[in-house]
Amino acid sequence: MRRGRTVSRGYRFAPPDSDGYYDLSPVWLATWSDGTWLNGQPAAVKEVSHDTRTLQPGDIFIALRGNRFDGHDFVEKAFHKGASGAIVCRRRVGEFGFRMPLLAVEDTREALYRIAWGHRRSLPSLVIGVSGSVGKTSVKEMIALILEAGGATVRSPASWNNAVGLPLSILKLRHRHRYGVFEVGINRPGEMEDLAGLLEPDWAVVTCVGPVHLEFLGSVQEVARQKRRLLEAVKPDGKVFLDLDHEWFEYLRSGARGRVVTVSAEGREDADYWVEMCNGGHEFFVHERGSGESHRYGISFPGAHMVRNALFGIAVGREAGVPAREIAAALGRFEPPAMRWETRLEAGVLFINDAYNANPLSMRAAISTFGESTRARGKWLVLGGMRELGTQEDEEHRKLGEFIAGGPWSGVFLVGELGGRISAGLEGRRVGFPVICCRNAAEAARMLAQRVRRGDAVLLKGSRMERIEDVLQHWCKLQGRPFSQREDPDAEGDI
């Protein structure tokens, strides 16, 4: 039974409180979740938290069950950290021997969805959903930065984009927020229907469609169909932002409700917003078909894919009425999330850590950008495998090997069993660089240390589960240098 259908029947909306604001009041939490308060109610609820490590005093703790943990085991710890209450499964209530406010529900995951569903529809904010096979986290961050110039804005933290992350993100919205920008990611059929039904975006962005999570989705056609579900959920008077250059544009547009706003990083003048590069690619003009205006922008991070990401942010901002000068200032403040083109100089060697995730599209984009934009004496690739490609796994790794075969590399390190499959595309080819297969990150770091010299640059890229960023950690240890990594929680189903 689909969640979107269960929530909508006989649903009640929360009226504003005494100050005219909508809030996460205990009364409406119980109403939305069909739950019952035991041991009284909290005086107030600050946020909804599912993690005692980040829980703040006044938050309500929701006891979710995962593959490797059960939040019910941490309820007592949550209260010790100052939780104002906890949402627990009704059948587990007898396990707690302390008298603190407990909201008893049938299923905590379902309750989280129901609470977020009611809360989202009680607020007047303009809600924007962002999805796509690559680039959605960066695009989400750019849009949020830009819209902050026009009003208070809340966004998905990190890559909170799945069946847990999205509702928790929605619950950060308050009446004072003019905009909400939320990332939506899935990796299995049917998930987008639930998430899009929960979000019901006013506007939606789909960055692109590509061969990702084929192990579960089966085909690129199915990936496109799932992305189109988000566009189908947009309100009839809403807006959909699509890439006119993309091969799946017509298919996606056919499912869009409301006005379709098009962008083109390849300079197509029939797009609503199209790019003209200047100053060697560091700056670019965006021409607006509707207004007839042109404005100059810049972004400090290299690559055609980053310009395309920025173009989506610019289009959303201009459609929201944000002045071009404010958009330019926001793009100047943009920094990619952790492990997305994160640069670090260690012992005279420039490391570019782009190892948050990988698929055939993002691999090619990162490698091309590294080869074209990085100024270094020697350029080294350290690559892990690409996960969740199903029956296309061997073929896509072979194609990636063919793609890098003619590049200007000083050497290529292939890490792990899956990464080693990239070598199939290099076999029998006359390449001007060594190809070194390593069992793990520690071995790759040792082999790298024997070859790389000051003034060289190294790209780290691979799927999240491959943990290619560990190569940098081992490198620092070999150099006797401290290592610290920006934290960015993993997101299940990040496509």
Per-chain topology:
Layout: H1 3-8, H2 26-33, E1 36-38, E2 48-49, E3 60-62, H3 75-80, E4 85-89, E5 102-105, H4 108-121, E6 126-131, H5 136-147, E7 153-155, H6 165-170, E8 179-183, H7 191-199, E9 203-206, H8 214-217, H9 220-232, E10 239-243, H10 249-254, E11 259-264, E12 273-278, E13 283-288, E14 294-298, H11 304-319, H12 324-333, E15 342-346, E16 349-353, H13 360-373, E17 379-383, H14 393-404, E18 411-415, H15 416-420, E19 435-438, H16 441-451, E20 457-461, H17 470-478
Q: CATH H level of the largest domain: which superfamily?
A: Mur-like, catalytic domain
Poorly predicted spans: 1-22, 488-495
Q: Summarize the main sheet.
A: 9 strands, mixed
Please bin the fraction of helical residues: 25-40%
In the CATH scheme, what's the topology name of the largest domain? UDP-N-acetylmuramoyl-L-alanine:D-glutamate ligase
- CATH hierarchy class name of the largest domain: Alpha Beta
Percent of residues in beta strands?
15-25%
Shape label: globular
- Our measurement of the CA-to-CA distance between the termini, rounded to an integer number of angstroms, reads 24 Å
- Radius of gyration from the CA trace? 24 Å
The total of helices stands at 17
Helices and strands: which structural class?
Answer: alpha/beta
